[in-house]
Amino acid sequence: MTSHEQRNHQLLTNPLVNFKQPKRRAEMVFQKRSSSEMESCGGGQVAEMPRVPKSARGKRSVRKKEAQSPAQMSAFDLLATVAGKLLDEGVGSLGNMSAGASALAACAKDVRVKQEQCDEEMKQFKHEVTDQDSCNESAILPHIAFQRAVNNARTEDPKAKSEAQDKESSMISCTKAELGCNFGVIADRWSPESVESGAFTGDAVASLMPTAPAGFHKNAPEMYNLLDSMDVDAKPPPLVSSDSTGEMPLYGDKIHRSTSLPRGPKGVGGFAVDRDDDDDKSSGCTHPSTTTNRDFRSNCTAEYSRVRKLLTSKYRKVAPARIHKSDLSYSDVERKPSFRNKKMHYTRQRTQRSTFKRRKLFDRHSVLASEFGAANGKGSTKVTGRDSHAEANKGTNSMPFQKSCVSNDCHVKLRIKSFKVPELLVEIPESATVGSLKKTVLEAVTAILGGGLRVGVLHHGKKVRDDSKTLIQAGIGQDDMLDNLGFSLEPNCTQNPQVQVPEDISFLETIDTTEPLARIAPADSCSKHGEVDVSQELALTPLAMNYQGSDHDSVHSPRGVSSPDKVSTHSRALVPVPAADPNAGAVVPANKSKRSPEQGQRRIRRPFSVAEVEALVLAVEKLGTGRWRDVKLRAFDNAKHRTYVDLKDKWKTLVHTASISPQQRRGEPVPQELLDRVLAAQAYWSQQQAKLQPKTPPLAEARLLT
DNA sequence: TTTAGGG
DNA sequence: CCCTAAA
């Protein structure tokens, strides 16, 4: 017996992967093709669908390669330099935030399955969970194991469930404490516990409180490790919840679809969907996590370029979007120009950028994020910086404060005690996951940064507008300085000049921001499906699915968009959670809205997460390898960035990956179990195809079924 | 548009 | 991921 045959055999005999089994109702329900088609596909055949003549092809190539115009490089580049620090210190961590809580909530989407379907699937499900636990635990982070335990508990024993949950809570707390950094979304009225568990109610406002304990840099590596774990743990949100909750109905169509993946023990289906969600919003920019993540200490150059990239992309795609005049103190108009005219400034900016870039990098290390207070509602980020990099900036004119003194030695040393992120209004559909909420917030923040942040200086509460004044002239630098000096982040309306400002400002100082920056309305952030409707409900509330099981009620009343005030009133605390979520890995800013069809750009790379892989495997096991469109619909319907071609390609690589030694594999490791399934499925479907080939379709089928 | 493969 | 020939 060849290995293939063995696998195949295994496949056929394994209850969990038995292709012989006729399709079940559940599947039928989700199938988009007609039942008749299904029939014909039963054996893995590719259903015959009327295809569009290829006549309609052809524009692709044309639009494809357009040179990137400098215009595309944005003011962002410049800002990038400036924001680099922020990103690295604060936002960066945001980018890395783990999907943690998000994952928890993810399951919500998978809910809404008909009871019968659930029942049916559930049996299988339980088996799988058990099975997998035993199989992969060793290879999985404890967190995952834990999660699973929770999941299992939930599906089975109530006691165990609560126990597990408690455990979870404590774990999270610990982790959080350890990290000293946390990034989360807190809804008003939320209790810390609820946040932890991912149960939300009411409006969620997000305030960013990126904080990192002192010494963050030093411990960066360790921190990341922790983060990673967190991420992981977040992932496996249980689809299980499907059974319950009456909330489901609230979610639209999207949910329905997600349901199509009832099986995943880990909520794979939900996952994939989830991620999509998040991803969808992203315009394709690189997620901070991807960019900024792990070794930000590495070399400056690399670092810089990463940041730059990040910003650049954001600029291009994200920035402008979602800024509502109504919420801004400055007019929309003001802001837009900066984006539109980017071209004009590009040259100059770029020059500047290069100039600043290095300096920035150097300064960066000096910034330390301090621990900040709580999420009481006022999210504030406190950053304290010790070293004064004033020297570094001496030559710069635009930076009054940094240069501090007029002469030699009198450097003004500043410490950023608080860095409040201007109000951000984020609107996100209820069906969105916590993870996506985080991403949205992140995007909002980065969009702002990218869009051009300007730093304002406040002295004794008054804005110091004259940039040409020296600190001394402005009265800054006295002893009382620290108490009376404040910084604020402001939208950089005018494209130009401000740019420099940021540069100079090394974010060493304290920045108190109070001005509302922008309102972010992830318009189409949702998928095109039914979500649109949601827009009306625009709840700022992220709902956490019933991860907990009980707090459904939390689901909340959707809020109209019109409740900004309320929002602002609420606490928006961002609990800083620095998590580097591998899966989330690519947290990308969303705003595709703005995304101009600047085609020609190669899509950003978005590595498949394990969850996605699992979803893919699951779908292929059921549908076969020749129906990528169906696979897409089934498992990645909400992942707009995953095309059937992508899935097909991914499968191709998976098959390849599975056939090479683990040492040769790269990227996020895919559980062997999944790879085995890939090979099994591949073998099986290949065989099916072969059998059909000859001419005995029916017979082949019959034989198999025997 | 979707598949299937090469790049 | 991209690009394309085919279907």
Automatic annotation (TrEMBL):
Residues 54-63 have a biased composition (Basic residues). GO terms for molecular function: telomeric DNA binding. Residues 600-655 form the Myb-like domain. It comes from the Eukaryota. InterPro entries: Homeodomain-like_sf (IPR009057), Myb_dom (IPR017930), SANT/Myb (IPR001005), TPR1-6-like_ubiquitin (IPR057625), TRP_plant (IPR031105), Ubiquitin-like_dom (IPR000626), Ubiquitin-like_domsf (IPR029071). CDD domains: SANT_TRF. Residues 412-482 form the Ubiquitin-like domain. This is HTH myb-type domain-containing protein.
